[in-house]
């Protein structure tokens, strides 16, 4: 499922999740906000980003800027 800014109220697991427990979930319930959390800790904290920052981060991850773990 694609995340639509301001229209995705349910947490959605990353399509890059490998089933190894290292997953993130994202949602965008209101315009101008993207929330990210650890799927292993659904009651834990979430980080908030503006859509431009989140898009830039995802772009850098895809380009391998941060290496692999």
UniProtKB/TrEMBL annotation:
Top-rank lineage group of the source organism: Bacteria
Pfam families according to UniProt: DUF397
Start-end of Polar residues biased regions: 7-18
Start and end residues of each stretch annotated as Disordered: 1-51
Occurrences of domain DUF397 (ranges): 10-62
Protein name from the UniProt record: DUF397 domain-containing protein
Organism the protein comes from: Streptomyces coryli
């Amino acid at each position: 499922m694609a995340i639509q800014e301001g229209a995705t109220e349910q947490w959605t697991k990353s399509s890059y999740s490998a089933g190894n427990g290292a997953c993130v979930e994202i949602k965008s319930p209101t315009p101008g906000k993207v929330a990210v959390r650890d799927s292993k800790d659904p009651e834990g904290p979430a980080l908030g980003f503006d859509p431009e920052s989140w898009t830039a981060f995802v772009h850098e991850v895809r380009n391998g800027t941060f290496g692999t773990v």
